[in-house]
Specification:
The protein is of the alpha+beta class. The chain is built from two helices and four strands; from the N terminus they run E-E-E-H-E-H. The strands form two sheets. The protein has a two-stranded antiparallel sheet. A hairpin with a 6-residue loop joins strand 1 and strand 2. The radius of gyration is 23 Å and the shape is elongated. The N terminus is likely disordered.
Length: 74
């Protein structure tokens, strides 16, 4: 909780309660995650790790699954 304007009034923190870091598998993102974890622990905040990847386009309708195309099984 933190003060909100007038004395005696409090509001819940929102964005201040979480340390968020993005991961992409690189050494730099792993270093950022370590830093974020230490910072969250130091401030006694929640740590949120995010990982995202591009959404691949779906295969065309009627295309057999890749495992069938590569093995020849049906």
């Amino acid at each position: 909780m933190r003060p909100l304007g007038a004395p005696g009034k409090m509001e819940a923190n929102t964005m201040d309660d979480v340390v968020t870091v993005g991961l992409d598998g690189s050494a730099e993102s792993r270093a950022a995650a370590r830093w974020a974890a230490e910072e969250a622990a130091r401030r006694r905040l929640t740590l949120r790790l995010l990982h995202a990847w591009p959404m691949l386009a779906p295969e065309a309708v009627g295309t057999p699954p890749r495992w069938i195309r590569t093995t020849g099984r049906s």
